[in-house]
Amino acid sequence: MFAFVEQRYPSFWPYIQLMRLDRPIGTLLLLWPTLWAVWIAGNGTPSLKTVVIFILGVIIMRAAGCVINDYADRDFDGDVERTKGRPLATGAISAKKALALFCGLGLLAFVLVLFLNELTFWLSFGGLGLAVLYPFTKRFTFMPQLFLGAAFSWAIPMAFAAETGAVPEIAWLLYVANLVWTVAYDTEYAMCDREDDLKLGIKSTAILFGDADRLMIAILQGLTLLALIMVGQRLEFSWPWYAGLAGMSLSFLFQHSLIRYRERWPSFHAFLNNHWAGACVFIGLYFQYF
After folding, report:
1. Residue 193's pLDDT is what?
2. What proportions of the chain, in percent to the nearest 5, are helix, strand and coil?
């Protein structure tokens, strides 16, 4: 999609890479649960303004999160096989310019929330704080994925606040479902870097879980499905919602076939497959209200 930038405007390419605009998987993993919340909060017919603002917000904040993550990891990424080509690791972009880009993206996101109500405005500061905090947590806790899950799920209460003016109990149940799912799929991601992270002293759930990693991922995925079933029961959803959850279950089973040997690239492909798990749930939700 952005290949023309690399060919015609090569000086901008490192910025595209820094924001991961050429790798949309993170945007999609953030987008699907955000759309779950927007659709449920809007009872199947959310306002166009809310939909547009949250989609733009997802794109901008995911890019901002990648920038601050690479800034935090700039002294480590060069020693990790998967990340050694990142622009800050290679010196294609300076740390000062990366910080300026993060501030610019944060300002854009701030402009977006100005179009929403006061509760959503104040909640947005929590999302920004979690986005900044997450990249640094891997230095002092083996559960940085928990902070990532909290950050990736923060759009859920914001979506309910924007659409209904309140954050009901069902929003927090959806929040927990997405937080647990995020810990599961980011553990798959961390399995790719486990050997490099051990050498560098970087912490992750993949290291914490050790040989129990696949079992813990299965438990976390099971808890995700349980929480989403509870969401369906409380909202009195019917078969389309549960068909979506069945699709998510099949995706989880496929992922376990990929991570069974704990190899780097199959684990990475298992992580990527979570995009389809999130899409299945949204498709089921869409037809639930259709």
Report:
1. 87
2. 80, 0, 20
